[in-house]
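Can't attach files on this board, so I'm pasting raw text. These are the components:
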Amino acid sequence: MKEGKRSEFEECLKSFVVGADPPADLREAVLQHGCVAQQRVVSRFTVGYLGMLSVMWFTILGFWLATPRSGERNAAGKPAESLGSEGEGELLAYWQSRAAMLDLD
Amino acid sequence: MRQKGRMMQREELAAIYDEHAGAVFGFLTSMSGCEAGAADLTQEVFVRIGRRFEAIHDVENWRSYLLRVAYRAAVDAGRRREVRTRKEGEAERERAFCTYPEADPDRELFRKALEEALGELPDEQRAVVWMKLWGGLTFSEIAEAVGISENTAASRYRYAIDKLRGPLRPLYEEIR
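---
Top answer:
Structure tokens for the assembled complex are below.
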């Protein structure tokens, strides 16, 4: 777009300074609020990030605590490794021995 | 380190404010119709800049960028004022102080007539005239700031100048 040369009339209008000085206390208010606002954005971000990390770590810890360790028995009193094929055999043997003890056969 | 970063940002924001606050305040005074409203909007504009400073600190033309933000703030404020006026039936807005007084009596007369005539322009034409004449923006920058095409910006400017020429012609002949 060609800007074009200003006419004398436009130059005349331009010679009148349009505007006014902003109030003296506005500068400090702007600097204070502008910088505080940014600081708040940063701290809100940090809090959100740390919160997300904590939730993730607590979830991992929860899973880790809920997983039965080798040699431990679960809530039903069964051995922890009772789900594998080897464990199935052990479980069968365990119940067979229990049945023999109680003379259920 | 972060403290140093904040200080740098504060210094840069202060430098931008010192250079452009007068223009932003003048533009918003012309657009809002009162100095108190313009002061609030000027603060809003610079606080917005401060909030987004990390993302926008490398802006090339701050005058253009600030006037764009100021225009949007003025349009939003105008809408809020319109709703309030409709609800409460507020009186007509006070006449804005737009120009500095002149020592020469003929120029002083012209100045008052110019203020009056600027006040009569529709907001979108007054914004374009202000940005072009007193803000020093190109049509391309005005188009970007206002969200219109360059041709529309140029035609709004021409219409506005023609509207100003009418009532100001007799006084203009006196002072030229």
